[in-house]
Amino acid sequence: MGDAQAPKNPGFRTIHDHVDVSEVAGQYGGGGHAKASGCSFSKEAFQTFVLDTFS
After folding, report:
1. Are 21 and 32 in contact (CB under 8 A)?
2. CA torsion, points 55, 1, 22, 35, in degrees to nearest 10?
3. What digits encode the pLDDT tens for the residues 1-55?
4. Distance between CA atoms of 23 and 21, rounded to whole angstroms?
5. Is 10 exposed, middle or buried (0-12, 13-18, 19+ CB in 10 A)?
6. pTM of the entire structure?
7. Closest by Cα among 43, 13, 6, 15 to 28
8. Which pLDDT score is estimated for 3?
9. Are 42 and 29 in contact (CB under 8 A)?
10. HEC sequence for the chain
11. How many CB atoms lie within 10 A of CB 16?
């Protein structure tokens, strides 16, 4: 696995017209377009949404 101290910068993509991933990214201080956007996760957000989900 990668460096635990490295920044976590997820990207979000969708092919669905009714999904706006920039709204998700915006909740974490990011942004972008409706169908492609990104943000930076805090250590806590990364733990909750990635490690706890996929471990």
Report:
1. yes
2. -100
3. 566 677 799 999 999 999 999 999 999 999 999 999 999 998 888 898 889 999 8
4. 5
5. middle
6. 0.73
7. 43
8. 67
9. no
10. CCCCCCCECCEEECCCCCCCHHHHHHCCCCEECCCEEECCECHHHHHHHHHHHHC
11. 9
pLDDT score of 36: 98
CB atoms within 10 A of CB 21: 21
Long-range contacts from 46-54, C-beta under 8 angstroms, 24+ separation: 46/8, 50/8, 50/10
